[in-house]
Specification:
Length: 356
């Protein structure tokens, strides 16, 4: 469990040091005061990325050269460990004062699931938003997926550069294709497996909540079932790719659709339906992460998403998030939860970056 947070020049905070004494913590305050920034710092320490932006430079306080975050993590046996991430000039990562050279050795010590009003974008926005959700989710629980994704993107970046610069050495372009085929198959197989699991979890939730059924349809790229298929498609597509200057197919382009009431949700769903399914998707993620981790070091980051829920859905939501070892909520005003889950919470009031 996180027992202490320290921020230095992170977002709107010059210096912030908080002791976290309980499993449930509430940050309360008006919009724009910095509540979500604290959740973002916790998420950053789990994956070394933000759930709000892909640009790390945006996380530093305006006018400063960088930021740092420190977390103290304690377990039930009073064992404590210190995690530090310093992004002033060069990145420096430390665990208990020891320098960590690889991000893969630093991340995922805590596993965070974020619930945000922006989750609706997974339903409504471009395929890139949906792939980003899957990539982060699967990287957190499947080391083989994380490794394959890293290798795939390195090979893809180099091959695309060769295509873009009209490289005449075909053998050099081809040399990256077996890597893309092998890693691409791994990535797509994991995506297909876990989308089926997410679909099953969501369907069970919707049935319990008395809503219509939903399925998730994975739009896998043609010619990518086996490594041989993948390599054959490279042979047939390579000249077109050289003309266009980029790789024409692969795991970087696939997508998935939510089918609700037998119709694509993105095109035909109401705003309320899209918000419900986005919430169920994140609750399904929470269920899978908790099962995968035996609920240990799982943290729910809940950014003011309960305001429009009916009483039945709200109670269901709190029961799902209560699986996490620790929960951090943001509210503009603290609600009366239907199952009293917030009664034992530690409450911090935030006003213009001042936390009390």
């Amino acid at each position: 469990m996180i027992s202490k947070i320290k921020l230095n020049n992170f977002r709107n905070y010059n210096q912030l040091s908080l002791d976290i004494p309980s499993p449930t913590t509430i940050f309360c305050g008006g919009n724009g005061n910095g509540k979500t920034n604290i959740l973002e710092s916790l998420y950053f320490m789990s994956m070394l990325r933000s759930f709000r932006t892909s640009k790390i430079a945006e996380l530093k306080k305006i006018g400063t050269t960088g930021f740092s975050i420190m977390l103290e993590i304690a377990n039930k046996n009073n064992w404590k460990s210190i995690f530090e991430a310093n992004y002033i000039e060069n990145r420096t990562l430390k665990i208990d004062g020891k320098l960590i050279s690889k991000a893969s050795e630093f991340i995922k010590k805590i596993k965070t699931v974020v619930f945000s009003p922006e989750d609706i974008r997974i339903i409504s926005d471009s395929s890139g938003v949906r792939r980003r959700f899957l990539n982060i989710f699967l990287s957190m629980i499947e080391p083989a997926y994380f490794a394959a994704l890293k290798d795939y993107h390195i090979a893809l970046k180099i091959r695309n550069k060769l295509l873009r610069t009209r490289c005449q050495d075909i053998s050099l372009i081809k040399s990256y294709e077996p890597i893309l085929a092998e890693k691409g198959i791994i990535i797509m197989n994991y995506r297909e497996e876990y989308l089926n699991l997410l679909s099953k979890e969501i369907s069970e939730m919707l049935a319990e909540l008395k809503y219509s059924n939903l399925s998730i349809v994975y739009k896998r790229q043609n010619g990518t079932r086996t490594i041989d298929d993948y390599l054959h498609r490279f042979e047939t597509e390579r000249e077109k790719e050289r003309e266009k200057g980029f790789s024409n197919f692969g795991a970087q382009l696939d997508d998935f659709n939510f089918i609700y009431n037998n119709l694509p949700l993105r095109q035909f769903g109401s705003m309320g339906q899209c918000r419900l399914i986005a919430l169920c998707l994140k609750m399904a993620e929470m269920n899978i992460v908790c099962k995968n981790s035996s609920n240990t070091n799982v943290i729910a980051l809940i950014d003011d998403v309960t305001g429009e829920l009916d009483e039945r859905t709200e109670a269901f939501f709190y029961n799902i998030t209560n699986q996490a070892e620790q929960r951090f909520f943001t509210f503009t005003q603290i609600p009366k939860a239907s199952n009293n889950i917030l009664d034992e919470a530690t409450i911090f009031n935030i006003n213009n970056g001042i936390v009390e």
